[in-house]
Please model this.
Amino acid sequence: MVEQRSATEVLRRFNRTYTQRVGVLEESFLGLGRPLAASRLLFEIGAAGADVRGLRLRLGLDSGHLSRLLRALEDEGLVVVTPHPHDGRRRHADLTGHGREELDRLEDASRARADSVLDGLTPGQQVRLAEALATAETLVRTSGLSLLEVDPAGDLAATAMARYVAELDARMPRGFDPGPLPPPETVVVATEPTDPDVPVACGGLQTLAPGIGEVKRVWVDDAWRGAGLGSRVVRHLEDLARDRGLDLVRLDSNGALVEAIAMYERMGYTPIERYNDNPYAEVFLERRLSLG
Model:
């Protein structure tokens, strides 16, 4: 297993190699006359336009820097920024006709640079690289998510729990219609980097008895699976349980949720007898926590 310090050095070495190969170090990115940041902004705005607030969140740019980049693209006649059509307090960026032409040039040059990297590899090596980069992209994207405690009775928790219920209803052979569900005592949510009102993962924690907690309603959006976000939610809830002096956590699941059950077992959860009257639950697990 790669230790964290070694993983850090591997990532730094990859960054140095990759930025050199794809032209990030060039003053004119891909030879199109503007730096990488402005080129990336053109790509993000795309043919359909983009909310300026969403651009700032998605790219992690401060408002001043983003404004300067947009002004530079406006001065080139590539972008027009107007009040948002549905909210006058927000702004919307669109490409002009010239901007769409420049985006096409950017796309062509970017594909050509990518092809130049792949040309030196055999077909089998290209497949290996594509698979490795897809995994790396998912992991790096997920690493930027934060799990936050939210108001259990608030809109964000309600939206996340509704998506949890909808997925179970689609996956369980007999559907899932439990009626109104009271929220857990504690709800944690991760949201889309571009929209803090859109949940991509959630989980809940409540106390069953002195020293015993229950992990509930763990859900991860399909687009964010494959990078360990589900187990990260559970570990976060376990940390919260420890903070509250709970040394045992339990959970239940349905037999149709085979991936979730396998995840819990990998995390050290072991089978126990039924401990509640949930009619949809078929599997009951628990894990002893270390409070040291």
